[in-house]
Write a structure and sequence with these properties.
It holds the Pfam family Ras. By secondary structure, this protein is mainly alpha-helical. It has a single domain, classed as P-loop containing nucleotide triphosphate hydrolases (Rossmann fold, 3-Layer(aba) Sandwich). Helices cover about 45% and strands about 10% of the residues. It contains three helices and two strands, in the order αβαβα. Strands 1-2 form a two-stranded parallel ribbon. The chain is elongated and about 65 Å long.
Length: about 90
């Protein structure tokens, strides 16, 4: 069954918890020509540890949001890594 989703086969990147990955549906401005239902994109992204967003390069819809979300998620990863490091250190008390 071909859903119209084409994804790069970068299994190493998908399994690396330090990498923020997004599944981006482009050409969101062409609703009438949609080949992949939004829910398919959401489901695939969730199954593979990504977030899903639709964008339009033509109208610039969600372009800034895409990069802002990537930055926010990467910041959270860094914060959680720092917390984990601090929790794993022996107490000096």
């Amino acid at each position: 069954m071909h859903s119209g989703l084409e994804v790069s086969d970068e299994n190493d990147a998908i399994s690396d918890p330090d990498i923020v990955m997004a599944l981006v549906g482009n050409k969101a401005d062409l609703h009438e020509n949609r080949e992949v239902p939004v829910q398919d994109g959401i489901d695939y992204a969730e199954k593979n540890g990504m977030f899903f967003i639709e964008t339009s390069a033509k109208t610039a819809d969600n372009i800034n949001q895409l990069f802002e979300t990537c930055l926010e998620l990467k910041s959270l990863i860094i914060i959680w890594q720092e917390i984990a490091k601090r929790l794993s250190r022996p107490s000096s008390l």
